[in-house]
Design brief:
By secondary structure, this protein is an alpha/beta fold. It has one domain: Rossmann fold. It contains six helices and six strands, in the order βαβαβαβααβαβ. β2, α2 and β3 form a beta-alpha-beta unit. The longest helix is centred in the middle third of the chain and has 19 residues.
Length: 172
């Protein structure tokens, strides 16, 4: 790509990570190399198993504890996020990746695990031909301002309200 843009998928609706996975698959189909990094998540979710099929066309990194962060994050959550951002900065600056996805990066910023200024610096240092995608609820205003594309997923209706739990292959 001659020019890579910054995309943000945010909002309280379903589909943010799903959109980023779809974009990753499309990029791989076009011969691109993808870095798919997840904040706050750890584990072999269905999307990780599916993306791993693409072998060396995609690098998957996870910087979560494997537990849902509720309330006040623990010190280890901050350490994982800080380490993740350093690793992503190194990988992105290598020039090996055409598409870099930071799944749940917006939530990590909202929780204070990643300072917004550090993410802005990562965006500013992005190689010219690299597409950068940030997903997650609560994208900070400063991130929305510098992004080239912002999509908001909003809830119109969701079966979660009727007590339906996350289903393997659909939500997890």
């Amino acid at each position: 790509m001659k020019k890579g843009y910054v995309q943000v998928y945010t909002g309280d609706g379903k589909g943010k990570t799903t959109a980023a996975i779809g974009l990753s698959v499309r990029a791989i189909g076009a011969g691109f190399r993808v870095l798919f990094a997840q904040f706050l998540k750890k584990g072999e979710f269905s999307e990780i198993k599916a993306l791993a099929i693409f072998g060396d066309r995609i690098r998957i990194l996870q910087f979560g504890s494997g537990r849902f962060v509720r309330g006040r994050p623990q010190r280890s959550d901050f350490e994982r996020a800080r380490h993740g951002l350093q690793e992503i900065r190194k990988e992105m600056s290598s020039g090996r990746f055409d598409l870099v996805v930071l799944d749940e990066a917006n939530v990590a910023m909202k929780l204070g695990l990643i300072p917004v200024e550090d993410m802005l610096e990562l965006i500013r240092s992005k190689p010219k031909g690299t597409e950068l995608v940030l997903t997650g609820r609560g994208a900070p205003g400063q991130i929305l301002q510098v992004a080239d594309l912002v999509s908001e997923c909003r809830v119109v209706k969701h079966y979660l309200g009727a007590g339906v739990k996350a289903r393997t292959g659909i939500e997890k």
